[in-house]
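[job 0412] stage=fold_complex status=start
inputs:
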Amino acid sequence: MIVPLPQLLAVSAGLFAIGLFGALTRKNAIGILMSIELILNSANLNLVAFNRIWGEPSGLGQVMALFVIGTAAGGAVVGLALILTIFRHRQTISADEIKLLKG
Amino acid sequence: MFAMSPGNPSIGPLDLAARAAFYGVACATLIGAAITVTARNLFRAALGLALALFGVAVLYLFLEAEFLAVSQLLIYVGAILTLIIFGVMLTAQIASPTQPRFNRQAGISLALALAVGLGLGWIFLTSGWPSPSPKEPPPAPVPLSALGRSLISIYLLPFELLSILLLGTLVGAIVIARKEKDPE
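[job 0412] stage=fold_complex status=done
writing structure:
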């Protein structure tokens, strides 16, 4: 079966919107990180879907999705390291209480 | 791509079951995502994220991208999610139920996200994608050998750059997160 493309893209739009809401409203920095992972996944879904429907022979969409997964892993690692350090210094990871640089 | 009309003769019961499974997986993915952004308990949010990531992996299977589905399971569900759960555990006293979930921009953000999601969904569902005619066969899925070959030929440079980036994040994360030495 070939998946209906518009419905798949609608799922990805829904994932993106949910992730956007979470990234904008979550107080907890780890929650923001999780929402960003959702946004990256929705983009990946689009890449793979278009690759499948239009049949690019070298698999560009899948390769891009792989790179996105790899960079997301790196981003999550550095982000969590930063969050742990901030927690150790300030005993909070609430994103609106970290205002050391606010003038 | 098949037509959505019920009178299409090419839709057998197996196809119908596959379509029902597709919609079920799509719903599970969106529910997992909703749990991720709304759960008060961060650990529960991480479990919702696991459901969403797993659903996306199954959607990759529907798109016949098996290697990507396995990579998604290994890297996202296996590695990133474990890291996130470690992060939640290490900062556990902050994730208490008394903390508010959302900041004060919640209303305007909800409006923005709804506008973006409904707008994108409307565009995706109503725009006529140039679909191949039902007579000609759909394009074949990308075989794994072609994917591997293009990774070490056309896309070799980004592949190597990604490895350097991962080395950099490895060193950077250790430097950032290690305990500082005592001043004396």
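[job 0412] summary: Residues 1-7 of chain B have pLDDT under 50 and may be disordered.
[job 0412] exit 0
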